[in-house]
Amino acid sequence: LTTQSIRASVIIADLDLRxxxxxGPAFDRHGYRPQDWPGRSLNEVLPAGLMAELEPRYRAxxxxxxxxxxxxxxxxxxxxxxxxxxxRGENGAVTSVVAVMQEVTERLGIVEDLxxxxxxxxxxxxxxxxxxxxxxxETRVLTFSSGFARLLGLATAQELxxxxxxxxxxxxxxxxxxQATRA
Length: 183
Hints:
single chain; two-stranded antiparallel sheet; 7 helices
């Protein structure tokens, strides 16, 4: 595996936050010239706003406290999960830090889409006055939406086992469901 194949980027910086090594796709993607970075301070190569956000984390890692966090690129086009780890020398003292940034833009986009989708479902159920449920006969697990709970006077967090679920159904609906789950 390479930093390219896992969409990760790496910076190694010394105690003065001078870049010792840099590689990965994030830098080119955001218009940086990482080949010019070695020997330069992170303050010289990163935008002031981004450095203001990241410097305390680099300093904490240099003090021996690993850092792990999500952040958006300065241009807002990419989200990253970052891990800044102290590197210790033979005597145990921190000599440098390694920052690994893995792009997570797509993952965060999926999470945001799912959140919006769930909010739309709740609003649709509220407006139309319906709900939905799902029952897995093999596990006898019933899950239901807040709209379903509201219509039947159930607590949203309430769990229904198969027997309680069957008790909610009209007799003719029990037969229909019974036939459908035999198929």
